[in-house]
């Protein structure tokens, strides 16, 4: 893509976890979305997650019953969840998982302090924005909860971390970064960081570790430095990600070439 200096554009950006993750997944996706500002297409997994987040938010904010939520789910699923699933089995698993969760939905074990809380803050001087799905309080301690359509597994507690432990740690970075906003507003760090994996009705609680908090901040600074130095923005062509996860596929000439092969 030539030696163009994009650093001034990068320096003006307000960061989010999804913005960083787009670069990690594919630098060309980041280029199309955040430098050229191309609006991509809606995808199955993303729209499914958005729909479920809205319903869970409605449960906590409006007190809808499980029956009311499942009625909305069945009525609006086809309209809200757009894009094509990889296959019928995946579609069925996601549809059934969401339905079963809503049928048995119940409060988290904390008092709600904030729902879908927008946070606009700085991490060591870096402007950052995000949404905390659920901020809970129990016995004077705060808990950050993230609703996840992805199936995560509780920590194995083995001496050598497993691949699922490493995946959990990668997703925890987002909640550690949000913890900077919590600390800024409430004057304390969260007691635990949690994932509500709703498709499998799995609730994971992780103790807040100062070491990992500082590690997440360091990771953010290193990622932005890497993005700032990028000039080529070469694509990472992976069939599944390009076909089912990337909203830029219709605008990506590399994906179009891959499809023709």
Describe this protein with a few key phrases:
alpha+beta, globular, 5 strands, 10 helices, 261 residues, single chain
Describe the structure.
- With 261 residues, the chain is an alpha+beta fold.
- Helices cover 50% and strands 18% of the residues.
- It is built from ten helices and five strands.
- Helix 2 crosses helix 3 (27-35), helix 4 runs antiparallel to helix 5 and helix 5 packs antiparallel against helix 6.
- The longest helix has 24 residues, at 163-186.
- It is globular.
- It starts with 6 loop residues before the first helix and ends with a helix.
- The model has no long low-confidence stretch (mean pLDDT 96).
Topology:
Layout: H1 7-11, H2 17-25, H3 27-35, H4 44-62, H5 66-80, H6 88-103, E1 111-123, E2 126-138, E3 141-148, H7 163-186, E4 192-197, E5 202-207, H8 210-229, H9 239-244, H10 253-260
Parallel strand pairs: 3-4
Antiparallel strand pairs: 1-2, 2-3, 4-5
